[in-house]
Design brief:
The protein is α/β, with parallel strands linked by helices. The protein folds into 2 domains: 235 residues, Response regulator (Rossmann fold); 150 residues, Rossmann fold (3-Layer(aba) Sandwich). 47% of the residues lie in helices and 16% in strands. The strands form 3 sheets. The protein has a 6-stranded mixed sheet, sandwiched between helices. The radius of gyration is 22 Å and the shape is elongated.
Length: 400
Amino acid sequence: MFQSSKYKEAIDCFKEAIEADPTDPIAQIFLNNARAYLRGCDCLLDRPLKVVVVVSYSQNVFHIDATQNVLKGVADAQDKFYEGNRKSGRLLEIIVADDRNQPEVSKKLAEIFSNDETILGIIGHHSSEGTQAALSIYEQKQLALISPSSTSSRLISRIFFRTVGSTEVVANVYARFITESLKLNEIVIVYHEKNEYSQTLKDDFETAFHLRGGKIIHSISHINDLYLDSNGLIEEIRRRTKSKAVLVMSSIETNSVALALARANSKLNPQRLQLLFSTSLPEMPTVEIGKEAVEEVVFISPCLTENSDYTEQARQRWKQQKLNWRVVTSHDATQALIEAIRFSKQPTRRKVLTHLEELAQTSRFGLNWSALDCHSSPQRGYCIVQICNHRFEEIPIPDG
């Protein structure tokens, strides 16, 4: 029906889908898209404002969980726009694209979107690898890109923004936690060599940890090895290094390996190593899949203002007892793009880019404009949490 321009019928179908499953953000986004196209049919001057969100739907529970949370934040922002403009004016169409976390697919999508002049901005990509692959293509066409989850500190461009802190910010928080809270000055790191996110986090952490007098006593780069023996690796770390902690910097592709290491580590009880995981691992699937093996594992994730109006509304709407940070960062990214579009009666890519710069300079929506200062911390910092009894408990970090 949507493809055949039967927008009224499509609206009814999407409403029924939402009633059947109120927690499905795709149905909500498509409902608002149908409303936008129906408005455009009535008046050509009210044709939809087009924005793209690039996520990753693959047959992987980690990807699916992260994507669903990103789309929830996007859907909330699109809803607000609809409610404010439901009587007149142009509405917002959100095009949902899937790059499958494959850089070559990211490039192809970037070329398609860059050549479509009706598209005013991009939300995404989900991974730093996808963003890195697409960045130069968007740059050529001055198409603004706002990511709610790409953290690599090496992502720098005039057109690139993000609503989450970079790997340098993450690295500094982890270095402070390890030295001040765990009281350790030696650690083993495991990472995915040549992966944009994992490699950058490793480099940034080395710098931050050394500045605090810390020493990396063993560095393991082959977490992506298909024949990796998780049990053997954990036993080797315990026996050879006598380390008390391991920082596992898994990439999106190697999140399952992080859980395998946790299972191997749990067999050492009561001599478990303290495992620390990175933001590539969505929290709830880690608890649900890892079960007892991930007890006491430490995570780092963007801090949320638990009592904010939006956080409370989103928690109730999506029925999440503890709201995932990706919901909030993607909501902020979409809101920022909408705000930049609103500045102009006839928005263009160039105008949107200029207005995003102004938003970044006023620190609105937690924007971190990489072209100005790629290592500055946005409004939202990072918090340390630990899995205890299948729940996440925040751990305060000493100042210093």
